[in-house]
Amino acid sequence: STLRQCAPPWPLGTAAGASIPRPPSLRRNESLLDGSNSEYNSRLGRARAANSARRGVNDSSPSPKNGEIPYGRFSTGSPTSGSPTAAAFIGSPPAAATVLLPADEANTDARWAYSPAQQRLAVVDAKQLLMIIDHTGSLEYRVQLPPEGQTIFIGWEPGGSVLAAVQKLGGAFLWFPSKPENVQQWEGMQFSTKVLSGSLLKRNSHFNACFASWSSAGKLVLGLTDGNFALWDLASNQTFMSRKHFAGKHKGGITCGAWGPRGDTLALGSENQVKVSQPLQNASWDQTATKLHLPANADATGGFQQLLFSKSGQLLAAFAGSSVFRHLCLYAVIDQGKRGSELTPVGEAHPSPSVGSIQAAIWLEGDVMLVLTSNGFVRLMRWDRIEEAMTEELLRVCEAGVIGAVPLPSGHIAIARSVHVLVWDPVARAAAVVVDLAPMPRNVRLMAVEAAAQPDEPAVIVARSDGELSRVPLPRLPVVDTELVRVNPSGHGAASPAKPLSVGSPHVLLHVTPDEGALHRRLEPLHHAWSPEMQQLAIVNADSQLLVFSAEDGRCVLRNPLPQAPCTFLQWDPSTGKTVALTLRGRGVGIWTADTGADVKMWTGMQSSGAFLRLSADSSSFDPTSACWSRAGQLAVGMSDGSFAVWDSVSSQVSTSGRSGKHKAAITAGDWIDSLFAPALALASRDTIKVSKGFEAAGWEATAVKLKLGRGASGAGEGPVSPLSKLGSSSSGLMRKARADPEGLEFVQLKFSAGGKYLAALAFPSTAPAAAQVTRYIFSRQQPPPPPIHPHWFLSRAPSPHTLPRRFVTCTFAKHIPAACLRRHQPVSTATSASARPPRAHTQASIPVRTQVVLYEVQNSRETLVAVRDYTGSPEGDRPFSMSWVGEDRVLIVFSRSGTSGSVRALVPSGGGIEREPCWPIDGQSAPGPMVGAACTPAGLVAAVFDTGGGGVAMLLGAQLEALASFALAGVPRAMSLHAPTTHGAGAEGATLIVSFEEGGVQVWRL
User: For residues 732 and 725, what is the distance between their CA atoms, to the nearest angstrom?
Assistant: First the structure.
């Protein structure tokens, strides 16, 4: 249908100096004229009636009361009326701020938009009154929108030729500056001008808009709550609306959208879907280029809330969650030819207590994403399409209290804080101008900032919580070429942007003695786990009992007997800290929730429906050998026959391994990529690592990459080959060789970096019983033939992977398995504590002499694993036994030990030379004794415990591995674990160190 120029049935905007009658009701046509409704039988009659009403002399609007500010020209503010004080900058000071909209209760929830082309501000207040205000603060026009409606969007066409105000259940109201007397109402497929007798809400129940956006080409899209959408093209005056079975329709309401840089490509998002169109012809969505389904619970992510295309259109930024919980994911838009496009996740940014919440995201030239956080940090992210790698840099640009940021025509970034507007130069990485704002009244805060700048008149509009809108001029600055912005990879220590770590006086928070149940025996070891959220300690003792102690009063809140079997895993759910899970060889999985207080529930079998079964006589098919929690509350349990099961603690769903996810040997290690947008699970067996392609709910839908080691010498020097490469040969030209893997690696530990870019693997060569190594891998579409590996102790990886998009993963390998740990085929548990060390025997023979850490890079949508680096230990003979990541994809901390000493090394995944990486102890120093266990927090706090011969000592190190503190322990330590502080509750006070002892007993230290 075509748009018809027509007048609405209510008074239109008038000049500020004219007499303005009170807008009549939409339901009463007779109020517009004294005559009958016959005058509305033609378009001409309706237009004349509207003009007559606009020129009427009966002004029913009440006069302004004393003290109220009438509509009209607002004076520029003085420091007492809201204007800023003198600006702090180099050059001539700008003019005083202009109050465009005064503080008023009706304006606190107002929607507003500024047009730099028109230099006009459009505002819809709480009474649905649309006002047009010029840049001096003068009221030019005002229009009463249907008062029963609710405005969800107001925005100018980029050229300023049309203003659209969109109401929920009311359609779009279009106002043209060239014809201010005319307003069109867009209801569905037509532009209605007839006043219907029915209610506005009932009339438009099929056209319930919840999203709207203009394109640079003059196209307006409206997203509807039923998943449909409507398009209007200003140039051709054509409209389009999706239908029930249309390819572009969503299953849920449209929540966000973005136009491509040329204005002909449209991306729309709903709660857990994103669809991108092929280039639009006029207003028609003819074909969907690609679609994406969020592989996670929308309840956990908050659903998609905002989409932003990069300057080139080759990257798409998607936001999930709201307020301080907003998360960002960057997707590469990969052209697949006739098959359309593909959205591939390439990077993420998350809020944290140190950097704060995400306040703004701005695309710069060269497809550089600038993310600004509330604590004054700027994260620069650049995706290299040739190298297929994400480079990130974190900078501190101002103090905390950031409200928002907008780009200026000069290339600078205007950053708004509660006290000033800082203009930041992204090329020079320095503040160019600081313009102070006037002090605000008590309980009033800054809410938003928007650019209101012409190239020769830079300015911003700031909004306050009391409804006031002010235009703040900025001084002219030289133009900055943002194509010159470079992103330098952050080195070691950049993951800890806050103040340096410091430790006060560590004190004992809880002490459980052997008499209280913390029993330990050489062949029946003690296991422990700590919940920072609940402040509770869980123990599985030598008598096969599960005990839970509260740190608040030291009371034992649970004492539950367990089946007699070796315990291989004990850990609390990291999402809530309220559920503890344990695995018993040949007996199943135990689950206990602190909220219920009930006894332990044993999970001893599976059905396809996922129901828990009673313990059967033959439970050989449910023999857990490893387990790992995700931050979303999913528990993955690997079995001795190569199968696995996943339990979702939120939904209580259970899934079993499918054909693609099952291994041929016992699963010995696993880890999760804890991504809100693209989570994944990696599991390792004798000679194989498999990584899932996403992981929705509790099901392994498909395998993204399978890494299998060769079993002969011919495998050395070849790269890993993925079965997915058989689907096409497009990636063959992108393959590259990496360092050849040792023949026959047996994996005992996997660790994904926080951003999912690397996978670290701890392993040992199966051909050398006293050897272990750590290797780094990268995901690739192809994998090599496999070498032999021990059935119970490794994840395998291949010698030379291939390059595509870079994402990294780290796996660790340890070869030497003490006989005491092989009792009943019990694998070494690396998840329960930071130490995988056997029961005490500090002889050189019992320490792995060639353990190695291998670091893999995850590439090409997790279809490629490429080994990029390995580490075999220190020159003094210390060999790796554990590892932890610091920050997002930045630094891997590797802990090594020998029979008499121990050391800590920081490895940067991108290399840079081992001589430039921090290590401890430094030259001339030595460890206080054999290292028993070590771990670190994501912020870089390192804790290590040592056997000093009849006693023990704990060492605390900083992010640069500098010594912070040390204190004596109550006995000879056996194992330890370290937990970062939580963001709330008693656990927010500091990190927590838990140490168990050879003679029994557990101590919990608050650091």
Answer: 8
d(CA 680, CA 672): 6
Give the helix ranges, DSSP H, for 575-724.
none
Distance between CA atoms of residues 441 and 508, nearest Å: 47
Q: Measured on CA atoms in the order 242, 244, 249, 252, is the torsion positive or negative?
A: positive
pLDDT: which is higher, 565 or 738:
565
- Taking CA atoms, 302 is separated from 489, 677, 895, in Å, by 30, 11, 38
**Which bin fits 1004, alpha (ψ -120 to 50), beta or left (φ > 0)?**
beta
* pLDDT above 60 for 898: yes
Is the pLDDT at 859 greater than 80? The verdict is no
- Is-above-0.70 flag for pTM? no
327-335, strands of its sheet edge to edge: 304-309, 315-320, 327-335, 341-349
Q: If residue 300 lies in a helix (H) or strand (E), which one and from where to where? A: helix 298-301
Of 40-44, 622-626, 940-944, the poorest mean pLDDT is in 40-44
Tokens describing residue 34:
């004294």
Nearest to 383 by CA among 426, 331, 337: 331
Q: How far apart are CA 857 and CA 851, in angstroms?
A: 20
Give 865-896 as a DSSP string. EEEEEEE---TTS-EEEEEEEETTTTEEEEEE
pLDDT for res 455: 65
The closest of 863, 835, 867, 844 to 932, measured between CA atoms, is: 835
Q: Is 512 helix (H, G, I), strand (E, B) or coil?
A: strand
Share above pLDDT 70 across residues of the chain, in percent, rounded to a whole number: 70
Q: What is the pLDDT of residues 647-669, one digit of tens each?
A: 888 777 788 776 777 888 899 99
Question: Tokens for 90?
Answer: 């180099």
- Tell me the C-alpha distance between 57 and 35, whole Å: 16
Distance of alpha carbon 603 from alpha carbon 617, whole angstroms = 14
> Tokens 């998360």, residue?
327
Give the Cα separation of 929 and 954 in Å (integer). Answer: 11
**Residue 877 CB partners (closer than 8 Å, separation 6+):** 849, 898, 901
State the chain's maximal CA–CA distance in angstroms: 107
Report residue 842's pLDDT band, with 50, 70 and 90 as the boundaries.
very low
- Amino acid letter for position 977: S
Six-digit token string for 830: 């690396």
Alpha carbon distances (Å) from 790 to 6, 815, 880: 80, 9, 19
Q: How confident is the model at residue 866, as a pLDDT?
A: 84
Exposed e or buried b for every residue in 357-394, given b needs 16+ CB within 10 A? Answer: bbbbbbbbeebbbbbbbbbbbbbbbbbeeeebbbbbbb
| H/E stretch holding 256 | strand 256-259
What do you get for the CA distance between the two ends of the chain, in Å? 70
Which residue, 278, 231, 284, 275, is CA-closest to 256?
275
